[in-house]
Amino acid sequence: MSTATALEHPIRKDIRIEGVLQALADPVRLRIVRAIADHGEIACGVLDLPVSKSTLTHHYRVLRESGVIHQRPVGTSKVNSLRREDLDALFPGLLDGVLAAPRD
Amino acid sequence: MSTATALEHPIRKDIRIEGVLQALADPVRLRIVRAIADHGEIACGVLDLPVSKSTLTHHYRVLRESGVIHQRPVGTSKVNSLRREDLDALFPGLLDGVLAAPRD
DNA sequence: TCCATTGTACGAGCCCGGTCGAAAATCGGC
DNA sequence: GCCGATTTTCGACCGGGCTCGTACAATGGA
Fold it and tell me: How high is the ipTM of this complex?
């Protein structure tokens, strides 16, 4: 049953530039964002990143709570997508600029 | 005399998105960047921010070494400007997106 | 029902970075 | 040369965040 707990996402007006920049400033999270941008949507586990699962949960939470990504549960997994519309409306050009950066 | 020491700035191709995002992610540094964007150029000391001089020096160095600002000495002071051309060329839209954000 | 898969919660360790004060350096003016 | 103004350097403190392992929860299939 579970009362659903409903994955907290900030509404658009509560997304703050400081939080978004801080979320994007971590190398692991930046890789996650790039992967989502490339594939449209991805599950949490599909990327092989050099961190443990619990650390990964931490990073996805930072991205979600800062307003960068949206997470929706699908079966036992979670599907992540970028909040492009919200980010583009609030900080036009920011996301595209970040994604345009060379990826060594 | 002093052999000049010449304030190290990264050349364009060495500016990395990770460094830029990390530099912009700090509230004090974001205020500095906004102030420079508003006034074109400012000296280090003209802003009254809630931190000490030595902390301010630290923040200006982070901004300079990440490639966000350019510093040139003028008398006993230093004048700071945004590296707009470089940032716009590398990450088109990023700076404008950041500056477009509401400033609570 | 049992189990594998996926992700979360919790507690802990640890390093990085923001912060400061005091002392030194740089520069211009007198 | 001397002084004041501006900024830097240095050492230190400390809190936060990235990290992990273990244990737990939730879901869906066999």
Answer: 0.91
